[in-house]
Design a protein that fits this description.
174 residues
Length: 174
């Protein structure tokens, strides 16, 4: 009987940390998403998209995409009656167009990434302040980065709350 009691006590002792963990308030946040969804970030990204180089690259992207889609449609429609040389030439032209499209897409993405990284660095101190406020106000014991979590119910996410607080902070005169 005493051996059974000892086993029960050990099992209970092992369960205590799990019970404590179950009582902890856990939250998840996507810091990058919170920042990029702020009004301030949207304005900055819009400014990048209004720059001459970006507009030129976007126009080139749109042109290449529409030409490529038209060429692909023609190729798919006429492939059955094309000679081997015509098929090879069309496939080469499609491949070349896709490479050009990928290159221009890379330029557009790079411009947005540079702006996004600058925003993340600029707003990092504000985000830390907002996170501290939310952690304290909501009594959060454990805060996890969304990218590190395999699954979390939407109720655990404070990302929208962080975005809202950042928008409020940025709207206030400094």
């Amino acid at each position: 009987m005493s051996r059974l009691l000892k086993v029960a006590l050990v099992a209970f002792a092992l369960c205590l940390p799990a019970l404590t963990w179950a009582e902890a308030k856990v939250a998840v946040v996507d810091v990058q998403g919170a920042i990029l969804n702020t009004d301030f970030a949207q304005q900055r990204i819009s400014e990048v998209r209004d720059q001459g180089d970006y507009k030129k690259n976007k126009a080139e992207y749109d042109r290449l995409k529409s030409e490529g889609e038209a060429l692909l449609k023609t190729y798919q429609k006429d492939a059955a009656i094309m000679s081997a040389e015509q098929k090879a030439a069309s496939q080469q032209k499609l491949t070349s167009m896709q490479e050009d499209l990928d290159h221009v897409t890379g330029k557009l993405q790079q411009a947005e990434q540079v702006a996004g990284q600058a925003l993340l660095q600029e707003m990092a101190p504000k985000v830390q302040e907002v996170l501290r406020e939310i952690i304290e106000a909501d009594g959060i014991d454990v805060l996890l980065q969304r990218q590190s979590v395999i699954h979390a119910e939407p109720d655990y996410s404070i990302t929208v709350k962080v975005t809202d607080k950042l928008n409020q902070q940025m709207a206030q005169p400094q």
